[in-house]
Every structure is written in structure tokens, then in C-alpha cells.
Write a structure and sequence with these properties.
The protein is an all-alpha fold and 110 residues long. The chain has one domain. Helix content is 82%, strand content 0%. The chain is built from four helices and no strands. The model has no long low-confidence stretch (mean pLDDT 91). It is a multi-pass membrane protein. InterPro entries: DUF3817_TM (IPR023845). Keywords: Cell membrane, Membrane, Transmembrane, Transmembrane helix. It is found in: Cell membrane.
């Protein structure tokens, strides 16, 4: 595997962490909106905007994840784990610990 500059690795991992956190928050907001507005208040239209925003953020996360797999030379299995985590509430926050550790390891190796 080719050497990846530390700054590039850090930037790619940081971008993945930030987008993952934003996407994770949007998923939780969508779930709360769905429960409150759709189920309790019966206002199905009220979740359109949160759903749209979450969908766009999820696609952005998938794009950033694919870029990270390519740039970092990570196995597809690594990307599949992160993708599946993004489908679960709080999944991106759980996976963030590993990404943070990987960033710290990269910093110590330089």
C-alpha cells in the first residue's frame, strides 16, 4: 500500500467524522419528528423537510465514505461497517470513537 501523507489521512478522517456526526444528528431529529408530528399529531407533511435534509446528508455521507475508502486504501469491509452503522440510530457516534482513535494513531506515527 502506498504511503498516505498524514495531513491527507487526517483531513479525510476528520471529514468523515464531521459528516457522520451531522448525519447522525439528522437521523435522530427525523425519528423525533416522525414520532411527534406523524404519529402523535397526525401531520404527515411535517416530516417532509427533515426527511429531505436527512436524505441529502445520508447521500453526502455515503459519498464521503466512498472517497475515504479509495483515498485511505481501506478494505470494503471497513466501509460496510461504517455504512451499516449509519443506518442505525446513534451508529455514527459509536463508530466515531474508532475513527478518532485512527486519527490519533496517525498523528503519533508522524
Amino acid at each position: 500500500m502506498a504511503h498516505i501523507p498524514r495531513a491527507l489521512k487526517r483531513r479525510v478522517l476528520q471529514r468523515l467524522r464531521v459528516i457522520g456526526a451531522i448525519e447522525g444528528v439528522s437521523f435522530i431529529v427525523l425519528m423525533i419528528a416522525a414520532i411527534v408530528f406523524k404519529r402523535i399529531l397526525g401531520q404527515k407533511e411535517a416530516i417532509f423537510i427533515p426527511g429531505l435534509v436527512h436524505g441529502i446528508l445520508f447521500l453526502l455521507y455515503c459519498t464521503v465514505l466512498a472517497h475515504a475508502i479509495k483515498v485511505l486504501g481501506r478494505p470494503l469491509r471497513w466501509g460496510v461497517k461504517l455504512f451499516i452503522a449509519a443506518l442505525l440510530p446513534f451508529g455514527p457516534f459509536v463508530m466515531d470513537r474508532g475513527l478518532k482513535r485512527e486519527m490519533e494513531t496517525a498523528d503519533m506515527q508522524s
